[in-house]
């Protein structure tokens, strides 16, 4: 059994009858279908998302040796789900090929975003050893605290795929600065292909929140209700003692941890209560915190947050906005796409920290640190009582850019936070908010004024957009994502406010962005079932092209295919459908057609144009035999790392207790696994597993009445398989 690979691949299968739109299988007989199990709204959404990923819808296009594996799912308002995917190539992770699918509980794909991906053709055999690569990575820093074991990874860089060893090295630079270096060493040449520092510095903040309530264990500064979050000194251990913690001293480190835990816990609660998001890491917790750094600095390095002192030594840098800013970096890092490598992406990461600092201040509403839109205003960092950044008018501090058009590739990352910070203030408060709040300027070419929608709505729109983030995140992508989130979460008024705020900071309209009008823009989606097929020369194979209406009224979709090799013809019956209907695609392979794997692009054209990809294998072996005594037989084809649900991408219902017998026969030399799963009311759970290191598996399970399905997983190797099953 291979639990690690199983978790990544089988988890990517949706949990409903709508799997039929995403997964392959040819049945010779089928158990009687029953009504869909209850509680399947999420499963319908994930079936649609996984179907889009398997079919290579639009930006999800991938080659025959690539796979898109669902890595996280975040529920959202109005029955929406954000499913993020990471790309793999021949079983290796791909950095830079990530994507997000937004789908709803009715089983419709609402939005697809993906980082641009070149065709991946690279050898997966390393010439440089992992030990040599690790030595090279460690040599980038003057001193090393820790380094992760190198992992063979395909890095997409400059439009090309590079085989690399990937490791995270934590330590200090030659200048003594802390560093968390995300390093990729070329596995062919041994040189450093890319190294990005994950540490993002916040140059000082305020301190002292007064007497507050925090959640800790009885004898240590550990919060078990938030994933074991803890705070302590530079050795990483939580401070011990008992309540009341601290003494209100400006440089007492236990008191510093009181302020850190207060701000981090307020941010955690704000995320849950305002946005329905489960903590800074999206899984209910956050990284630990360390106080007492003897430097004028505070930072997040991917494994912890660390807080130092003010320049004058008068206090620790543990105000609400500094702590929430650092944990804002964790939010940016742990949402899809993680933290990118470009300077613009880095500026947006800094801005994200500032935005979550402002959000947390407003949520906490602490009289010792009243809510505002300035950064570090309590620190007196330069001895003049001024903040280090300003969100309503960034140019008031160091002449930082207010407008997107002022950014260059060389803009310092903290200064590059200006345009998005400015956008957020305009969206939340407007250009002339009144009530004692400062006015905010509008960039050249923008609207005459902007009306705010309130910080809570603005924050939820921003959080929703982060769930659509990819590794190629930039301001135009943020504009598209925030418009989509505003329309899907609230409606036309909020969508138009988002648009006005982006116009006001000079981020122009983008092709294909959401229409904020009161009516829904007509649109549709495509999916193939199955998305791949194997056939001998002189024969044919079929697939169903499923369409769905994702916006407006149903429309006519014209189907066509391109990219078929010589000797292969593709036809559709019917050649055009009304969205919501399906068509049968027949791929006819002439005798003499060369063996090989060929991607065929299927295009649907209506009010918009969408594409999916069918992977055709010519000359593959026929499905093996050996399950002749089974009551029902299914056949399919899998590439290494892929999985399919049976029967026919769906499930069956057993009305009585009895024994379920499964028989899998896979291609010679491959390692295929078989899982029998039962619906437990909320998810599919494994009840029997055939997980030996061979192509053939057998399972037998005595179970009560209920819904069941089999999952066939190609752990390694590719080819056709036969599944036989017998049920009570």
From TrEMBL:
InterPro entries: FTP_domain, Peptidase_M4, Peptidase_M4/M1_CTD_sf, Peptidase_M4_C_domain, Peptidase_M4_domain, Zinc_Metalloprotease_M4. Pfam families: FTP, Peptidase_M4, Peptidase_M4_C. Residues 204-332 form the Peptidase M4 domain. Residues 540-552 have a biased composition (Low complexity). Keywords: Hydrolase, Metal-binding, Metalloprotease, Protease, Signal, Zinc. Residues 531-552 are annotated as: Disordered. Residues 1-29 form the signal peptide. Residues 67-115 form the FTP domain. Belongs to the peptidase M4 family. This is M4 family metallopeptidase.
């Amino acid at each position: 059994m291979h639990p690690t690979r199983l978790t990544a691949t089988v988890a990517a299968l949706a949990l409903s009858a709508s799997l039929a739109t995403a997964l392959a299988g040819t049945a010779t007989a089928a158990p009687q279908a029953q009504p869909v199990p209850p509680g399947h709204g999420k499963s319908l959404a994930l079936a649609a998302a996984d179907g889009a990923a398997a079919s290579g819808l639009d930006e999800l296009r991938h080659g025959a040796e690539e796979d898109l594996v669902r890595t996280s799912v975040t529920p959202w308002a109005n029955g929406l789900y954000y499913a993020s995917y990471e790309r793999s190539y021949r079983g290796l992770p791909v950095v830079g090929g990530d994507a997000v699918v937004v789908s709803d509980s009715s089983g419709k794909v609402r939005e697809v975003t993906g980082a641009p991906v070149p065709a991946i053709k690279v050898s997966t055999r390393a010439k440089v050893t992992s030990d040599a690569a690790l030595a090279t990575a460690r040599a980038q820093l003057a001193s090393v605290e820790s380094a992760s074991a190198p992992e063979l990874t395909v890095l997409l860089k400059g439009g090309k795929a590079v085989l690399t060893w990937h490791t995270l090295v934590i330590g200090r630079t030659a200048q003594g600065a802390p560093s968390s270096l995300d390093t990729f060493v070329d596995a062919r040449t041994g040189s450093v292909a890319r190294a990005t520092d994950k540490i993002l510095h916040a140059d000082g903040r305020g301190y002292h929140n007064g007497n507050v309530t925090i959640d800790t264990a009885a004898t240590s500064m550990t919060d078990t209700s938030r994933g074991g979050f803890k705070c302590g000194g530079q050795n990483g251990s939580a401070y011990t003692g008992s309540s009341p913690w601290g003494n209100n001293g400006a440089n007492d480190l236990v008191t510093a941890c009181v302020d850190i835990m207060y701000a981090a816990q307020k941010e955690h609660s704000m995320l849950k209560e305002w946005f329905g998001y489960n903590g800074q890491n999206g899984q209910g917790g956050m990284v630990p915190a360390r106080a007492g750094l003897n430097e004028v600095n505070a930072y997040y390095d991917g494994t912890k947050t660390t807080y130092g002192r003010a320049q004058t030594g008068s206090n620790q840098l543990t105000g609400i906005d500094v702590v929430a800013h650092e944990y804002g970096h964790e939010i940016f890092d742990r949402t899809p796409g993680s933290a990118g490598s470009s300077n613009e992406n880095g500026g947006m990461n800094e801005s994200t920290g500032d935005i979550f600092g402002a959000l947390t201040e407003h949520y906490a509403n602490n009289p010792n640190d009243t809510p505002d839109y300035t950064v570090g205003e309590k620190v007196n960092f330069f001895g003049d009582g001024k903040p280090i950044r300003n969100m309503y008018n960034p140019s008031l501090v160091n002449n930082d850019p207010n407008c997107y058009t002022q950014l260059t590739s060389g803009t310092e990352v903290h200064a590059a936070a200006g345009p998005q910070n400015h956008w957020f203030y305009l969206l939340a408060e407007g250009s002339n908010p009144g009530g004692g709040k400062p006015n905010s300027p509008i960039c050249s070419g923008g609207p005459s004024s902007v009306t705010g929608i309130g910080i809570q709505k603005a924050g939820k729109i921003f959080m929703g957009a982060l769930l659509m983030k990819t590794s190629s995140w930039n301001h135009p992508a943020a504009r598209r994502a925030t418009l989509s989130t505003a329309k899907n979460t609230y409606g036309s008024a909020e969508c138009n406010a988002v648009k006005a705020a982006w116009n006001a900071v000079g981020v122009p309209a983008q092709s294909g962005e959401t229409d904020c009008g009161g009516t829904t823009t007509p649109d549709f989606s495509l999916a193939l079932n199955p998305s791949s097929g194997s056939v001998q020369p002189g024969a044919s194979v079929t697939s169903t092209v499923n369409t769905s209406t994702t916006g407006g009224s149903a429309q006519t979709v014209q189907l066509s295919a391109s990219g078929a090799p010589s000797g292969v013809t593709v036809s559709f019956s019917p050649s055009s459908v009304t969205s919501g209907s399906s068509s049968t695609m027949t791929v006819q392979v002439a005798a003499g057609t060369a063996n090989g794997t060929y991607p065929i692009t299927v295009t649907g054209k209506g009010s918009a144009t969408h594409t999916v990809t069918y992977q055709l294998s010519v000359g593959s072996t026929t499905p093996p035999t050996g399950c002749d005594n089974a009551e029902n037989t299914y056949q399919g084809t899998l590439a290494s790392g892929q999985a399919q649900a049976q029967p026919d991408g769906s499930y069956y219902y057993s009305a009585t207790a009895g024994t379920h017998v499964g028989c899998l026969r896979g291609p010679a030399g491959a390692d295929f696994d078989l899982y029998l799963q039962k619906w437990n009311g909320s998810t599919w759970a494994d009840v029997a597993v055939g997980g030996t290191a061979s192509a053939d598996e057998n399972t037998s399970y005595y179970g009560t009445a209920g819904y069941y399905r089999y999952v066939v997983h190609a752990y390694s190797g590719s080819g056709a398989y036969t599944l036989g099953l017998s049920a009570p």
